[in-house]
C-alpha cells in the first residue's frame, strides 16, 4: 500500500469514526474472556513482585502470546466468566430499560444525535456552497453592478471597459507606491545625515571635555607648584586638597585682604607663566 493510499484510508477512518453516547446510570458492560485473562495475569505478576514484567509494551506483547497458546481447558475458565457476565448484563439491562433514567437518557441521546446531524448537514452545505461560488468581475458604470464572469463575452465592450478601469486603478496604485518609495528614500537620507551629525557633535563634545580636562590639570599643577610653600590657614596645596585650599584662599581674600599670606600668594603667582 502506498503512502498516499494509506493517508486517504486513515482519513476515511477518521471521518467515519462513530460517536458513542455513554449512559453513566446503565449497568456495567461485560468483559471479554481475554480481558479476564489479562487482569488475572496482571494480578499474579503484581502479587509476585515482578513489576518489571508489567511494563506496557512488553506485558501486552507477552500476554497476547500467552493467550494464543493457552490450553482450551484453562481458556474455558475465562470464557465461562465472560459468558456469566454477559448473561447478568442482559438481565440488568432489561430491568434498567424499564426505569425513568433510561428513558431520559434515550431522549437526551436522540437530541444529541439530531444536533450532530444538523451540524454535519450544515458543514456539508457550507462546503458545497463555497465550492459552487462563482468568480465575479466588477466594473465601474452608472449602476455599479456585479456581473458573473461567464456572462461577459471575452473582448466584449463590458470586458474591455472593466480591464480599462482596472488598468487605471493599477496606474494610480503604482504612482502612490512610487511616491511613497521616494518619500521613504528621502527619510532614509535625512536619518543618515542626522546620524553623521550626531557622531560629529559627540566627537566634538568628547574633544572639548578632553581639552578642558587637560587645561584644568595643567593649571592645577602650576598652582600647586607655585604655592607649594604658601600656607593658608595652616594648609599647603596638594592634588588631593587643591579645591579646599583655593576655597580657603578665596575666603581669606574676601575677609582679610591685607593678610601677610596674601602677599606671599601674590609674589608666588607673579612668577607663574600661565601661557
UniProtKB/TrEMBL annotation:
Residues 1-25 are annotated as: Disordered. The keyword Aminoacyl-tRNA synthetase does not apply. Residues 27-97 form the HMG box domain. Residues 163-197 form a coiled coil. One of its GO terms (biological process) is regulation of gene expression. One of its GO terms (cellular component) is nucleus. Residues 8-19 have a biased composition (Basic residues). Gene3D superfamilies: High mobility group box domain (1.10.30.10). Pfam families: HMG_box. The keyword Transcription regulation does not apply. One of its GO terms (molecular function) is DNA binding. Residues 27-97 bind DNA. Keywords: Coiled coil, DNA-binding, Nucleus. This is HMG box domain-containing protein.
Amino acid at each position: 500500500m502506498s503512502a498516499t493510499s494509506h493517508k486517504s484510508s486513515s482519513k476515511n477512518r477518521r471521518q467515519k469514526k462513530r460517536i458513542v453516547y455513554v449512559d453513566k446510570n446503565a449497568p456495567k458492560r461485560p468483559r471479554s474472556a481475554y480481558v479476564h485473562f489479562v487482569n488475572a495475569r496482571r494480578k499474579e505478576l503484581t502479587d509476585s513482585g515482578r513489576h518489571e514484567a508489567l511494563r506496557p509494551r512488553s506485558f501486552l506483547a507477552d500476554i497476547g502470546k500467552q493467550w494464543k497458546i493457552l490450553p482450551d481447558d484453562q481458556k474455558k475458565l475465562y470464557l465461562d466468566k465472560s459468558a456469566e457476565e454477559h448473561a447478568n448484563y442482559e438481565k440488568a439491562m432489561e430491568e434498567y430499560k424499564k426505569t425513568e433514567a433510561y428513558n431520559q437518557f434515550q431522549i437526551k441521546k436522540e437530541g444529541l444525535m439530531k444536533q450532530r446531524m444538523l451540524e454535519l448537514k450544515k458543514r456539508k452545505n457550507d462546503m458545497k456552497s463555497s465550492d459552487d461560488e462563482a468568480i465575479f468581475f466588477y466594473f465601474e458604470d452608472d449602476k455599479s453592478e456585479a456581473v458573473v464572469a461567464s456572462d461577459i463575452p471575452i473582448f466584449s465592450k463590458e470586458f474591455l471597459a472593466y480591464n480599462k478601469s482596472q488598468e487605471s486603478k493599477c496606474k494610480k496604485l503604482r504612482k502612490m507606491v512610487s511616491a511613497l518609495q521616494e518619500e521613504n528614500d528621502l527619510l532614509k537620507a535625512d536619518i543618515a545625515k542626522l546620524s553623521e551629525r550626531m557622531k560629529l557633535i559627540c566627537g566634538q563634545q568628547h574633544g572639548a571635555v578632553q581639552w578642558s580636562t587637560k587645561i584644568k590639570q595643567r593649571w592645577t599643577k602650576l598652582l600647586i607648584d607655585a604655592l607649594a610653600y604658601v600656607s593658608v590657614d595652616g594648609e599647603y596645596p596638594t592634588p588631593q586638597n587643591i579645591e579646599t585650599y583655593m576655597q580657603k584662599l578665596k575666603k581669606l581674600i574676601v575677609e582679610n585682604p591685607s593678610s601677610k599670606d596674601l602677599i606671599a600668594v601674590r609674589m608666588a603667582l607673579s612668577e607663574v607663566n600661565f601661557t
